[in-house]
Amino acid sequence: MFISVPATSANLGPGFDTLGLAVDLRNEITITPSKFLSLSTHGEGDDNPKIKKNSLFLSIFNENYKRLTGRDDNFRFEFHNRIPISRGLGSSSAVIVAALSAAYTAADKRYNKREILNHALRYEHHPDNITPAVMGGFNVACVEGDRVYSKKRRMPDYLKAVVVVPNRTISTAKSRTVLPKMYRKEETVYSLSRSSYMTALFMSESWDLLRIASKDKLHQARRMKMMPELFDVQKLALKHGALMSTLSGSGSTFFNLTYEKDANKIAQALQARFPQFRVFILSLDNNGVITKS
Ligand SMILES: Nc1ncnc2c1ncn2[C@@H]1O[C@H](COP(=O)(O)OP(=O)(O)OP(=O)(O)O)[C@@H](O)[C@H]1O
Ligand SMILES: N[C@@H](CCO)C(=O)O
C-alpha cells in the first residue's frame, strides 16, 4: 500500500480555523504486511526519536484498523517525510489523514473522502488543515456537530506558493495560548469581513485584490511577535510582488501566494535576506490524499 498526503496552509490570514489550501509537498508512506511491527523514517524528523516512534500515526492507524477489521495485524511502515514538523504546514493533519486513509486501505474497506474527513475531526478539532489535506485545493470549512461541511475550489497552475520555513518551531498548542479568550467587535468584524471577501475572491479567481482581503486582526500579529523577523518576511514578500503574505497555520512558516512569473524573484529576495530560513517554491495541490492498495 502507498499513501501520499500534502502539506497545507491554514487560516490564509483572516480565515482563522476556517480557510486552507494544499501545496505540493508530500509525505509518503509505504505499508506492507509483516510478522512484526517495524518502522523506518526518512527526511523530516529522521533525527528525532519522538517522530521516529510515530505514536500519533500508529495510535490512529491501530485504533481504526481494529475498528474496521476486529484484528490487530502487524505491518512494516516506511515514512518518507517532506513536510516540516511544527512549522505551520499541517504536519499533524498530514499524519492524521494518512493514518486514517492507511487504516481504511489496509482493512480493504471502501470509503469516500468525506468519511476520512469526518473521522479526522475527532483527532484535530479545527477543519482548516484536515480539509485540504483530504480534498486538495482551496477549501472553506465549518463544523456542525461532529461533521465538517466544506466547499473546494481547484487552484490554477499559474499560481505558486513561496513558503519561508524558519529554523525554529512553533507548536500549534502553544501558538493558540497567546490568543485572547475574547475579541472586540471591531477586530472580529475586520477579520470576518475579509475572510468572507477572500473566499469570494478565491471562488472567482480575482487574485489582485487578495492583499486587502488577507489582512487579519485575530491572530497573526499576536503570534508573529513570538518570532519578530516574520514582520520583515511579510513586508519583503509584499514589496516583491506577492499577491498575499500570511502566517501559515499557527506558524512559524510564512505562506506567499504569487503569479508563477514572480515566484523566483520573491524567493531569491527572501532567501538572500533570511539565509537561515528555508525558502521553497511550490505548486498548489488539487488532489489531496492519494492511496494505492
Ligand atoms: N511526520 C511526522 N511523524 C510523526 N509525528 C508527527 C509528524 N509530523 C507531525 N507530527 C506530530 O505533530 C506535532 C506537530 O503538530 P503541530 O500542530 O504543532 O504542527 P503543524 O501541524 O506542523 O502546524 P499547523 O497545524 O500550524 O499547520 C509534532 O510534535 C508531532 O507530535
Ligand atoms: N487554525 C489553526 C491552524 C493550525 O493548526 C490555528 O491557527 O491554530
From TrEMBL:
Residues 205-275 form the GHMP kinase C-terminal domain. Its EC number is 2.7.1.39. ATP binds at residues 84-94. The keyword Iron-sulfur does not apply. It comes from the Bacteria. It holds the Pfam family GHMP_kinases_C. It is an enzyme of class 2 (transferase). Its main location: cytoplasm. GO terms for molecular function: homoserine kinase activity. Residues 66-137 form the GHMP kinase N-terminal domain. InterPro entries: GHMP_kinase_C_dom (IPR013750), GHMP_kinase_C_sf (IPR036554), GHMP_kinase_N_dom (IPR006204), GHMP_knse_ATP-bd_CS (IPR006203), Homoserine_kinase (IPR000870), Ribosomal_Su5_D2-typ_SF (IPR020568), Ribsml_uS5_D2-typ_fold_subgr (IPR014721). Pathway: Amino-acid biosynthesis; L-threonine biosynthesis; L-threonine from L-aspartate: step 4/5. It catalyses: L-homoserine + ATP = O-phospho-L-homoserine + ADP + H(+). It is found in: Cytoplasm. Keywords: Amino-acid biosynthesis, ATP-binding, Cytoplasm, Kinase, Nucleotide-binding, Threonine biosynthesis, Transferase. Belongs to the GHMP kinase family. Homoserine kinase subfamily. Catalyzes the ATP-dependent phosphorylation of L-homoserine to L-homoserine phosphate. This is Homoserine kinase. It comes from Sulfurovum xiamenensis. The gene is thrB.
